[in-house]
Amino acid sequence: MEDLAQFTIDDSKEQLAGFASAIQQTPEKSIDSVEKIHEFCSHPDSTIAKLALLTEVVVFKDIIPGYQIHSHTDEDERQLSQGVQILHNFERKLLRNYQKFLKFLERCLKIASLRPTAAEALCALMVTHPHFNFFGNIVGAVVPLLLDPLLCPVVCGSFKELFLNDPAQEATLEVVEKVATLIARHPKRIPPLVVETLSGWVRVDLPSSSQLHDERGEERMVELEQRRFEEINRRHEVRLDKKALEEERRFHRDLAQTKLTRDIAQRQRVGTALLRALVRAFTA
User: DSSP secondary structure string, 71-135?
Assistant: First the structure.
């Protein structure tokens, strides 16, 4: 790109808006434009640098998928269709640029003029995509900010939002464990708001003994799964003979029972770990 210093605020706004629009419209084709946006984060004008930073946050919030990205071997790639190869190429570039941006934000936390903006950016990404790669890295960067009186309210506000929108509680568990460690290390420096946030907004979801052995609950899930299966058959006009239909029903019944058992066991594991982390935090 040309020398960044020659771009005025208006020029930069136009450039950044163009890059962001292209990425949001065709992410797979325009993912390289993320690097162009990131270059503006090094602009000598701090106003333009902050604008680029915030633009990059908006772009990532918009294009990050609803799943974790896993690495693929070259051997895997050769056996895939062109469309899947394009997707994997997009995922690799997205992950590389996202990691680069997160490291940049962590460095910005050490720069007084950029520290508040970087903190808000990390919190926004943490809340929006707790399922995605590097969530633990973000939490690790954000939790120490609880010791900063100016940033503690921002971080606690983000934690509240995360706790409220985390039904599986796995992201909540990661946050609480790291906060508990921080409290143990700096018990006299923790603002009261931190404990208030944990005590007021974290709920522990431990399945009761009746839920662990609730046959009626299993029956309800099985019934719903069978209804779903039969509705799909009806919509697509699938006609199975009596024996095949019974086998399909049995398969979906077993699938529903397995899913219910797995979900309850996972809730039990996460709930128990969360309770231990809260106890550790409150007794530090």
Answer: ---HHHHHTS-HHHHHHHHHHHHHHHHHHHHHHHHHHHTTSTTTHHHHHHHHHHHHHH-TTSTTH
| Alpha carbon distance 55, 12 (integer Å) | 11
Separation of alpha carbons 38 and 27, rounded Å: 16
Q: Report the C-alpha gap between 88 and 85 in whole angstroms.
A: 5
Q: Is the pLDDT of residue 223 over 80?
A: no
Higher pLDDT pick, 77 / 94: 94
For residue 211, give the H/E element and its range. Answer: helix 209-212
Question: Residue holding tokens 């398969």?
Answer: 251
For residue 265, give the 3-state DSSP assignment. Answer: helix
pTM above 0.85, yes or no: no
Q: Do residues 261 and 178 lie in contact, with contact meaning Cβ atoms separated by under 8 Å?
A: no
Tokens of 271: 């709930």
Please answer whether residues 122 and 138 qualify as being in contact, where contact means their C-beta atoms are separated by less than 8 angstroms. yes
